[in-house]
Amino acid sequence: MRTATGTIGVPPGYARSMGFSPAQGERVIFSDRPSWKAILSFYLKGFAIAVLVCILASLVGLGFLLVSLIAFVIIGVTVLFGFVKRWSTVYTISDRRLNISRGVFAREIQEARLERIQNISFTQSPLERILGIGNVDFDTASTGDGNLFVFGGVDNPQEVVDQVDAALRSFERNPPGPAL
């Protein structure tokens, strides 16, 4: 979420309302969902499928009203699934950890402690670069498939990388004390 100054910031209670529970003394630096621009290709595919189905339905001889209803249902389902997909994913960066929360009915939580982050990079396709979105990949000190930790489809991925770098520098200067 962006503040009025244009930097990434989090108003009080925002991260908690999105499913992240900070530990005592933990400060949330960034919390947001994937950008709506990240699911444009999903919407375009749904629209293309609706057009193809409508063309086929017209060729079969179905009436205009039925073809229109089919198109409406396909586009409606596409928009609904895209909305749920976006709103059921939350990315959070605190001064101690990174968190990805996914799911509506079932929950999948991925966390990585800042001290386990070894490398941060981001990728953008040409279209993503035009749209100002990208995927931020965090390499962690894990040896298996569990080290795949990606904030996908975020606005301004360079700014997210900068926020994590700042959190890492702060963590290195002031590591938290032992947990009680």
Number of helices: 5
**Number of folding domains?**
2
CATH superfamily membership of the largest domain = Pleckstrin-homology domain (PH domain)/Phosphotyrosine-binding domain (PTB)
Distance between the termini: 32 Å
Order of helices and strands: HEHHEEEEHEEH
Biggest beta sheet attributes: 4 strands, antiparallel
Fraction in helix? 40-55%
For the record, the CATH class of the largest domain is: Mainly Beta
Radius of gyration: 20 Å
Q: How many beta strands in the DSSP annotation?
A: 7
Structural class: alpha+beta
CATH topology type of the largest domain? PH-domain like
What does it look like?
With 180 residues, this protein is an alpha+beta fold. The chain has helices at 14-17, 40-60, 64-87, 126-131, 157-173, and strands at residues 28-32, 89-94, 97-102, 108-113, 117-123, 133-140, 148-155. It folds into two domains: 14-32 and 88-173, PH-domain like (Roll); 40-84. The protein is built from five helices and seven strands. The strands form two sheets. Strands 1-2-3-4 form a four-stranded antiparallel β-sheet. A three-stranded antiparallel β-sheet has the order 5-6-7. A hairpin with a 2-residue loop joins β2 (89-94) and β3.
Give a summary of the structure in a few sentences:
By secondary structure, this protein is of the alpha+beta class. Helices cover 40% and strands 26% of the residues.
Secondary structure elements and pairings:
Layout: H1 14-17, E1 28-32, H2 40-60, H3 64-87, E2 89-94, E3 97-102, E4 108-113, E5 117-123, H4 126-131, E6 133-140, E7 148-155, H5 157-173
Antiparallel strand pairs: 1-2, 2-3, 3-4, 5-6, 6-7
Helix pairs in contact: 2-3
